[in-house]
Amino acid sequence: MAGAATRIVALAEETTGSPPPVRVRAWDGSEAGPESAPVLHVRRRRALRRVLWRPGELGLARAWVAGEITVEGDLYEVLARLAGLVWERDGALEEARPGRLALARDPAVRARALRFARLARPWPPPPPPPEEARPQRGLRHTLLRDRRAISHHYDVGNEFYRLVLGPSMVYSCAYWTEGGTLEEAQRDKLDLICRKLALRPGQRLLDVGCGWGSLVLHAAREYGVRAVGVTLSREQATAARKRVAEAGLADLVDIRVEDYREVADGPYDAVASVGMAEHVGEERFREYAATLHALLKPGGRLLNHQISRRPLADESRYELDAFIDRYVFPDGELAPVGRTVTLLEGAGFEVRDQESLREHYALTLRAWVDNLRADAARAARLSSPGRVRVWLLYMAASALAFERNRIGVNQLLAVRTPEDGVSGLPLRARVWQPSA
User: Fold this and answer.
1) Cis peptide before 55, with omega less than 30 degrees from 0?
2) Helix/strand/coil for 207
3) Weakest mean pLDDT among 19-23, 33-37, 60-64, 121-125
């Protein structure tokens, strides 16, 4: 009989209509596929069972997280080669119903899948790796469900995050210049936000989703504001309070474990929401925008820093990314930037500036991947080997998605413009560099 790798490659080509873009090495030591391509090592039959039960992205991701498939060569290159077969096309197989394999309606595809099943010995369905979040029932984005979702992602250890993010402890897109370091780029991003908000000594700043407190610390130290940071992660809050105390800024900075919907001590001169709105969800975004509008003084500014996706011809077909939803950001949702602008303005804001930082996020993610790879063994001790694989896959795939313009990230500067129409912004809010 042909080796397992040859059979995997043949079945993959039959199913997708084209040869696999990577070389396959199977559990029996056999290899097949293009000689010069990076190697996808299928270490256990169970990886194929996962694909049969959950075809496409989630099945492959589960096999990766469980260590049943690995990559020899450039992970970015492998992900780029597989994108057209996994993330950018419909799968050949349907999702499995309870107790049944994922088989297609088309008889020819069904027959190929059954041959694949004989190779994989699919019964019973493999349990998901322990790093996967349990699916939640009921309405999304209630206070309790949001707390659970945030805890899944952020309460995995502050030292793990410090290893990935570096000393800045900033978990959002940096703002790069040629030749700059990650720490310099994150400092420049924090300062960019403060300058867009036109912060001045004595003003009140609310940071919604404050993370480990880097923005409120920078704003208090460099601009003299009185800052409140709110987060749903208790581990983040503990670390942020320690950083505030060590900086001697406890009289200016208050860190709270609190949902933005629970903040009741407005009005504020400025509100920042950096990398938090992705957790809000479409059905709650109007409430989010209205809440932040009500928390601002007339003339106050909002800086909304948010990942976006490309719009769909039929928005009713939008689905949450299966891997991201199960392993990274449960219940996280992306919206086109135009939709975000519409909802902010519907809440009473005047959106005055939009700046895309898409390429900046790709650079940031690659820097985080480098940090994690440089100390992967320690990262595994701080969390788990599966968690390290989750982060490597999520960050590398996200970097490619930003580079390929599949997703973007935007800073929207909005104002609660007073009734007299005086926004308080200069006539030329942003200065562009001359073309080379």
Assistant:
1) no
2) strand
3) 121-125
- CA 325 – CA 346 distance, rounded (Å): 28
Q: How far apart are CA 209 and CA 292, in angstroms?
A: 13
Is the pLDDT at 344 greater than 80? The verdict is yes
Confidence of residue 88 (pLDDT cuts 50, 70, 90): very low
Q: How far apart are CA 306 and CA 412, in angstroms?
A: 8
Check the CA dihedral 291-328-80-357 and report its sign: positive
56/62 Cα distance (integer angstroms): 10
* Burial of residue 130, with CB atoms counted within 10 A of its CB: 0-12 exposed, 13-18 middle, 19 or more buried: exposed
* Contact indicator for 395, 365 with CB cutoff of 8 Å: yes
**How far apart are the C-alpha atoms of 190 and 61, rounded to whole Å?**
33
Angstrom CA distances, 323 to 55, 279, 300, 313, 340, stand at: 12, 16, 38, 23, 24
Region of 351 please: left (phi>0), alpha (psi -120 to 50) or beta.
Answer: beta
What is the pTM (predicted TM-score) of this model? 0.91
Distance CA 83, CA 226 (A): 46
Beta partners for residue 335, in sequence order: 308
Q: Are 186 and 168 in contact (CB under 8 A)?
A: yes
From residue 416, alpha-carbon distances to 6, 40, 353 in Å are: 63, 53, 13
Question: What is the spatial distance between Cα 155 and Cα 238, in angstroms, rounded to a whole number?
Answer: 11
**Both tokens of residue 240?**
């942020």
Contact 354, 88 (CB under 8 A): no
428 CB-contact burial (10 Å; exposed 0-12 / middle 13-18 / buried 19+): exposed
Contact, 199 vs 270, CB < 8 A? yes
Q: What is the mean pLDDT of residues 396-402?
A: 96
> Which region holds residue 266: left if phi is over 0, alpha if psi is between -120 and 50, else beta?
beta
Contact predicate 190/203, CB 8 Å: no
Query: Which has the closest alpha carbon to 10: 34, 33, 42?
Result: 33
Answer for the pair 263, 271: CB distance below 8 angstroms, yes or no: no
Helix (H) or strand (E) holding 208: strand 204-208
Q: What is the pairing mode between strands 204-208 and 268-274? A: parallel
> DSSP 3-state assignment of 69?
strand
The secondary structure of residue 335, as a DSSP letter, is B
